[in-house]
Design a protein that fits this description.
GMP Synthetase, Chain A, domain 3; alpha/beta; 9-stranded mixed beta sheet; Rossmann fold; single chain; Luciferase, domain 3; 15 helices; 3 domains; disordered N terminus; 5-stranded antiparallel beta sheet
Length: 522
Amino acid sequence: MPVHAPLNDTETLESFGERLQYLARHQPRKLALVDEQGSLTWGELVARSNRIANRLRAAGLEAGDTVAGLSENSADYVALFLGTLTAGGCMVPLSGMASGETLALMINDCDTRFLFVSRRNQALLEQCRAQLQRVPPENRIGLGFRPADSDQDLDDWLADTPATTAPAPVTLDDAFNIIYSSGTTGTPKGILHDYRFRARQIRRMTTYGLDRDCINLVSTPLYSNTTLVSVLPTLFNGGTLVLMAKFDARRFLELAEHHRVSHAMLVPVQYQRILADPEFDRFDLSSFQLKLSTSAPLRAAVISDAMARWPGNLREVYGLTEGGISTSLDCAAHPDKWDTVGRPTEGSEVRIIDDQGRELPVGRTGEIVGRAGAMMRGYYNREEQTREMLWRSPEGLVFYRSGDMGRLDQDGFLTILDRRKDMIISGGFNIYAVDLEKILLGHPDVADVAVIGVPSEQWGETPLGLVEMRPGAATSEAELLDWANQRLGKAQRLSAIEFREQLPRSTIGKVLKRELKEPYWR
């Protein structure tokens, strides 16, 4: 069910496979990537990707077939992704944060017959091996180790496979990748992107400098669209990737200085931890041209700190893995808009609707819907759930529902307030957690905070503040509660404050509010 917003009627496609062969011919000795094990030139990376493509075909991969990978960031994982595309396959990067049961559900759901797993994820493979329905043992390949039931690591499997190949022909409508949404129960939804989605996204991100000359430091996992948004244009344009298998703020700074990094896509919690490093100011970060931020709104105070102390511009990007919504904030150009996530990018449109699906005027709060050049083909094998995500405008245009609450200002800048499902309704009043969180973050002893709704006999639900305090803070829970409530409206007041050593987060830094709320709603 493709619902792309058309940009023009004359789009052409250069496939990743074709582009890789071009890069191998024209810049074989240029550095392609660096990981914890070493480095590869473009000639070496493309040769390894071609060998993987040839071996997948020999093992029966046909055009459009899926290939699943479960690995931390590494050169071999990038080569697997590129080899799958070169062979005409559809890559399915899987999350190492999933349980064995959920992992098996995703592997079976995407219909793959190929599974590549790194040594770090060996235990997860053991948990789900018995539940795998379609992946035969000979197609379970280890990245750096030999799985117990296949006795093949990647090098064994490749053997003497040739390093040259003819890339499979593809069209704009062919499957590129499937990314699974985060989910704690049942099977997460598989978000299917086609070549049109990625081609349009690559074109847009190239304008941000992710080109042949960029050196991109990658510290979020490849199963996240956050990561692929910056990795794919870097690869397509022949730039250089510096891969971190696991994020660490000090190591990020060391790598950035050593490799003269020019670009990085980070999530808000990473900015906080990097800027909080006591040695931050001694590192030479003068090579940075642009930092990108996504996955959650970046707080204005953090933007201010980064713009003051970290060379290069900062651009905030808001969108869905599904596509459809795309806004961007150029922080240098709009210092008065740091509380927003910017304006719709070229070819994109954002509107605000109420609970009945009626469009709301500027300044009113409702659900954010959008349409853009890059829109998923749909949730894999889930047409009904795909339809549920759609909103049709009075003109008959198809928009995607975001599930986020927000508002547009007179200048077209978008402010995000909360997830619709996380909005707190207390005594009939709508309370947006972000408004309360901003107040609490204004206290000098508060390092981070999440406000959630908890049951209340009197009000139905009521806001609770869960707070990480700064080291050495002396403020008590009662003192902080009183301080915050003096600054909040009567209908917004917090019922309580609870201190937490650390708020639970996903691997890309999102606070897991569902996990925080669960104990209170049992």
